[in-house]
Specification:
- It is a single chain.
- Helices cover 38% and strands 12% of the residues.
- An eleven-stranded mixed β-sheet has the order 1-3-2-4-6-5-10-11-9-7-8, sandwiched between helices.
- It is built from 15 helices and eleven strands.
- It has helices at 8-17, 22-40, 48-63, 106-113, 156-164, 180-186, 220-230, 274-289, 305-320, 339-350, 353-366, 371-395, 418-423, 429-434, 463-476; strands at residues 43-46, 75-79, 117-122, 169-174, 189-192, 212-217, 260-264, 293-297, 398-402, 438-445, 451-457.
- Helix 2 (22-40) packs antiparallel against helix 3, helix 5 (156-164) packs parallel to helix 6 and helix 9 (305-320) crosses helix 11.
- It is of the alpha/beta class and 498 residues long.
- The termini are close together.
């Protein structure tokens, strides 16, 4: 049986009924990882021995009919900016070197309690700064559907690993689309939850007011199951919300009758590829056929989201990355003359070009004489963006947009044109600026065989409605069930159906 085509919940069901052992599931994932890693480069660290030991522990729970969650025994992995005790966590950067955290992130603790089996740490853009996973110190990740293309970013390794079948779900982080965009490029499902519903404790920060962790998996139901585990109040995170958690999976009905779905006309204009537009509008038709009312409307604030996002994110990055100085941990330059020289040489040698670019931009917008003109104004526009979305959600239950303007670009194209890379986030960054939940679902394939994603956005704490609408769409379609060809296997348009 080709286990890689199963959803995480389907694999979990096999484990609970005894048709497959936890060790067998872990071995299937590790075998697929070994087969794919040389091409995809999705992993930075593989924890094979730990995974097999963990599988034995989880199997004892399964044998005793005490599975702590529907995901018990299902192999997964973490993006490499999420702290895992005793396992290298590098943020795909030279400056962190072989840093090994002495503690687990809250999401790792909660997934451990739910019986997860981690296969390791996933490749990413350095410090999550990028949209292609090409800025990694450990080399670029390749898209499983076409190795000449990027998998998206910054959680490109997570999306590639799920798409290729090495793991059945992964935990990524999303600062401006870093879960949803790679999910779209790789033909899987990725959910960015409402800001504050998932603890950021143990996440190495890029932009603290925008960062949020969430799942990448095959289906919306898988994402709901993961969020049931990782959401919830955490006293160690000052931004953690005391909001109801759990019940997302059991609450999936697929019933969107009477739901009002808005299509922002500003997201379907110039710059959007024609095939992407057609696929997203076809997704709207599917939801309409299931009883939703779909209507186009104007959201002019979209023209301001990219500059606002990059000013705020760069400013916060400039502050957050100041802790990496070669003193306490990570890479330390040699041959320095004094403390200032140590800082300068360590950061020059340790940070990559894109990280340096964003630190410089952030330091500039926070500097005397420019703070009011750039950073303060960006915060004011952020408030206007949130207000515009609040107004939209007084009229609509959900919004539907593209995830990215095109399918996955070729490797090297975006690095040669950073501005174009920033513009690839145009449909996703608004969700982070407004603190909203958003999900990317596969909604078709372009003529070149590459996946296309549609984005559903809900109001704050509307995660259940977003997941239910995505689930409704996936009940009618099979895009999320398709897998890229194995190495040496002839590629078929749209992949292999489950």
């Amino acid at each position: 049986m080709d286990y890689r085509t199963l959803t995480a919940l389907e694999l979990g069901a096999l484990l609970r009924e005894g048709s497959l052992s936890a060790a067998g599931a872990a071995k299937a994932g590790l075998d697929r990882l070994a087969q794919a890693q040389g091409r995809s480069n999705a992993f930075i660290t593989v924890t094979k021995e730990d995974a097999m030991l963990r599988a034995d522990q989880v199997q004892r729970l399964l044998d005793a009919r005490r599975a702590p969650s529907p995901l018990a025994g299902v192999p997964m992995a973490f993006k490499d900016n999420i702290c895992t005790r005793g396992v290298k966590t590098s943020c795909a950067s030279k400056i962190l070197g072989g840093f090994t955290p002495p503690y687990d992130a809250t999401v790792a603790e909660r997934l451990d309690a739910a019986g997860c089996i981690s296969l390791g740490k996933l490749n990413m853009d350095e410090f999550a700064m990028g949209s292609t996973t090409e800025t990694s110190f450990y080399g670029p990740v390749q898209n499983p559907w076409d190795p000449s293309r990027v998998p998206g970013g910054s959680s490109g390794g997570a999306a590639a690993a799920v798409a290729e079948g090495s793991v059945w779900y992964a935990i990524g982080s999303d600062t401006g689309g870093s879960i949803r965009q790679p999910a779209a490029y790789c033909g899987v499902t990725g959910m960015k939850p409402t800001y504050g519903t998932v603890s950021r404790y143990g996440l190495i920060a890029y932009a603290s007011s925008l960062d949020q962790m969430g799942p990448i998996a095959r289906s919306a139901a898988d994402c709901a199951a993961v969020l049931d585990v990782i959401q919830g109040r955490d006293p160690r995170d000052g931004t953690s919300l005391d909001a109801p958690a759990g019940g997302l999976l059991s609450g999936l009905t697929g019933d969107v009758r009477g739901k009002r779905i808005g299509l922002p006309a500003d997201c379907f204009g110039d710059g959007l590829d024609g095939e992407v537009r057609a696929a997203v509008l076809a997704a709207a038709d599917v939801l309409k056929q299931r009883g939703a009312a779909v209507e186009e409307f104007s959201l002019p604030v979209m023209q301001y989201v990219v500059p606002t996002y990059y000013i705020i994110a760069a400013a916060e990055a400039s502050s957050n990355l100041s802790r990496f100085d070669g003193v306490k941990y990570g890479w330390r330059a040699q041959g320095y003359e004094d403390l200032t020289d140590l800082y300068s040489k360590t950061r020059t040698e340790g940070f990559g070009a894109e990280v340096k670019r964003r630190i410089l931009l952030g330091t500039f917008v926070l500097s005397t004489g420019y703070y009011d003109a750039y950073y303060k104004k960006a915060l004011q526009v952020k408030a206007l963006i949130k207000r515009a979305f609040d107004e939209a959600f007084r009229r609509y239950d959900l919004l539907l947009t593209p995830v990215a303007p095109t399918t996955a670009p070729k490797l090297g194209e975006s690095l040669n044109d950073p501005l174009q890379m920033y513009l690839s986030d145009i449909y996703t960054v608004s969700v982070n600026l407004a603190g909203l939940p958003g999900i990317s679902v596969p909604c078709g394939f372009a003529s070149d065989g590459m996946p296309i994603g549609a984005q559903l956005i809900g109001p704050a704490l509307g995660d259940a409605a977003v997941l239910d609408a995505a689930h409704a769409f996936q009940l009618e379609t099979d895009h999320h069930k398709r897998t890229p060809p194995l190495p040496g296997q002839a590629a078929q348009k749209g992949g292999d159906a489950q």
